[in-house]
Design brief:
single chain, mainly alpha, 58% helix
Length: 201
């Protein structure tokens, strides 16, 4: 049986030495854990995916250079549950970047996640800045665009998916009863958590 703790340890092993990448990833995982203590909508699969969503950036995992696909394929090889693989592979507008990178056929072979779970994961990812700080989703998306040149596939993908990403985040907030300006006004879900121990998928 795959435990959320397994996801935490795998993420730490693969990304723990990658500076801000780990800071962001662990903060997203901590936020998801905090929210899971308050709502059954934030499932163990969502929490695991939050801890693993950027694992494809690991130098030991990169194959295509498209981190949702590389991460999802690696997790499949590790026997990770399909729903977690699906969430990692589809997180935060991955379909658009797959198209921009010419990898839509390979990406399309991944399992498809449950839509509400994907909204919650997108919401949490967009609530944490690249240095682990709480951030409004609209500012997070703007930051993505600022960090990449206009001809970069990430910039092109985020430009195309911006409105859909923000709509997904908004749906996640509604599902959890969070205010529109979360996490800035209600940040108790932010930060590290040890609640992953004993959670099961």
């Amino acid at each position: 049986m795959w435990l959320v703790g397994d996801s935490v340890e795998l993420a730490r092993k693969c990304v723990g030495g990658m500076g801000d990448r780990w800071v962001h990833l662990s903060a997203v995982g901590g936020v998801a854990e905090g929210l899971a203590t308050r709502s059954d909508i934030v499932t163990e699969s969502v929490v695991s995916a939050a801890w693993l969503h950027d694992i494809g950036y690991s130098h030991d995992i990169v194959v295509t250079g498209f981190h949702p696909l590389d991460g999802a394929r690696f997790l499949q090889s590790m026997g990770c549950p399909d729903e977690v693989v699906a969430l990692v592979g589809h997180h935060t507008g991955a379909a658009y970047e797959a198209e921009e990178r010419g990898l839509i056929n390979e990406w399309g072979e991944l399992p498809t996640p449950e839509s509400a779970a994907l909204d919650v994961l997108t919401m949490v990812d967009l609530a944490v800045g690249p240095a682990g700080q709480p951030q409004l989703d609209i500012d997070r998306v703007a930051g993505m665009l600022n960090r990449y040149d206009e001809d970069d596939p990430v910039h092109r993908a985020v430009t195309r998916s911006r409105d859909l990403l923000l709509a997904s985040s908004a749906r996640g907030k509604r599902l959890l009863g969070l205010p529109d300006d979360w996490p800035l006004v209600a940040s108790e879900g932010m930060g590290d958590s040890q609640s992953h121990r004993g959670m099961q998928l």
